[in-house]
Amino acid sequence: MIIFPIEHKLDWKKPPIATITLIVINLLVFVLYQSGDDEKFEQALDYYYENNLFEEEQALYLQFIRDRKPEIYDHYRGELPEQLYFELLTITASDLNLDPWLREYWQQNPPSVDTEQQRATWIEQREEFERLRGEISSIELGFIPKDFSVVTMFTHIFMHGSWGHLLGNMLFLFLFGFCLENAIGRRAFIGLYLLSGLAAAGLFAAIKIANGAGYIPLVGASGAISGEMGMYLALFGTKKINFLYFFGFVFGHWRASAILVFPIWVGKELVEWLTTDSNVAYGAHIGGLLSGYLTVFLLKRNVLNVDEDYLDNIDEGAEQKQQLAKIQKLVSEMQIDRAKKYCQSILNEEPERLDIIEKYFEILRITPEDSEFHRIALSAFKLAQKPDIPLPRITRLFDDYLQISSTPRALSGPVCLMLCLRFINARDLERAGLLMDRLLDSNFKHAKMSQALSALAILLNKNGKQKRAAHYQQILNSEYSGQ
Description:
By secondary structure, the protein is mainly alpha-helical. It has helices at 17-33, 37-50, 53-65, 70-76, 82-94, 98-108, 116-133, 137-140, 150-155, 163-184, 186-210, 222-236, 258-275, 282-299, 308-311, 318-332, 336-349, 354-364, 371-382, 391-404, 413-425, 429-441, 449-462, 466-479, and strands spanning 2-5, 240-247, 250-257.
C-alpha cells in the first residue's frame, strides 16, 4: 500500500534547490562511488572461495545461526547440492555478524600444537578477506551499529543498495521535499531531513543490537525520507488535504485531515516489519517518521518560520487571475461599460498593473477617438521608465497605438524622448528612429536630446546604417553643439 499527498503543484518559479541538490548528491554518490561494489564483492568472494575459508567456516556458521536463524540452519544443514553450497558460501561471506563471533571462538578454542600454523593461516586469510570486503561502500561508509561512527551516521543517508532502491527513494524525496522546502525554508528543511536520518539510524541501531545483529549495515535515504513524511503530516496537522493511494491494482484519491494518515503510515511499517522477511529497515523508517513528526510538531509554532499561505494552498496571484477572468467574462457578455468601470476601479487602487492596462487598452481600442484611450496608452508608456517592466509588452502597446490612432496624443515630447531612450538601450533602431523623427519634426527641445541623438547615431553606425547616422550627427552638431 502506498499513500502520498497531492495537495500542492510544483512551481518552477520557486525551484526546490535544496531538494534537487540532495537528489543530485545521492545520484552522484551511487554512480561515482558505489558503482564498483559488485566487482569488489566478487573479488572478496573469489578470495574467500579460493583460499578454502568456507571449508574452515561452514560448520561454524551453521553453529552460529542455529539459534539465531533456525530457518536458514534447517535449509542448509547436511550434504548440499552445488547450488545450495554456493548459496550458503555467499551468505556466510556476507554476514558481518560472524566476524566477532569467530574471534570469540578463536579465543575460547585455542589451537593445539599441531594445528597452530593452520589456525594462524586461517586468521591471516580471514583478515585479508575482511579487508577486501570492507572496501564495499555499504561496509565502508554504511552505518554499522556495533562499529559506531558519527561520520557513517550521516554518510549512510546518501547511499543505496540498487538502482531501484535509489530511484524509489528519490521519487519520494522529491514528492515531499519540494513542498516542505517551500513551507519551512531550505535550511530548516535540510536540517530536519538530516536529523530524521540520524534518528532513523538510532532506532535501527537499538533494534539490531538488541537482536544480536549489530553488524548489519544500514544504507539509504529511506529513514530521512520517512522523516519528511512525518514533517509533512505535522505541518498540516488537522488541515484536510488530498491524498493518492495505491493498494495492489486499486488506486484512487481522497481528502482527509493529515493527522489521520500518521497512524496509517506508522501501522503500515509495523505490519510489514512483523509480517515480512526482508532486508528493508522498517525500524529505521519508523524512527525517521516519528522524528520528523515530533520535531516539526514541537517547533512549528515558535521556532520554524512556516509559510501558512503556502500550506493553505493560497495562490499569490489568485486575486489577479480572478480579476482578469472577470474582465474577460464581462467583455464576452458584451457588458463593455461594466468592464471599463471595473478596470478603472482596479487601476485607481493599483495604477501600475500592466496586465489590467493591457486589458483596458484592448477594450478601448474600438473607440480610438475617446480621450480615455489616449490616457490609458499614456499610463502604459510611462511604465517603460521602470526597469522591471518587460519592454516587449510596452512595445506591443506602442505599435498598436500608432496603428490605431490617427492623432497619437499620448506621445507628447517628454514621452517620446523617454521611449526613444529606452528603445535605444534595447537596440531597437526602428522604433528609436521613429520617435526621434517625431521629436525633431515637432522641434522638441530638451537637455537629453543631445544624449539621445548621439547614442542613436553611434548605434546606427555600428549597425551599418551610416547615412542615417550621419543625418542625426549633423543635427547634433548644428543644433546641440553647445550642450
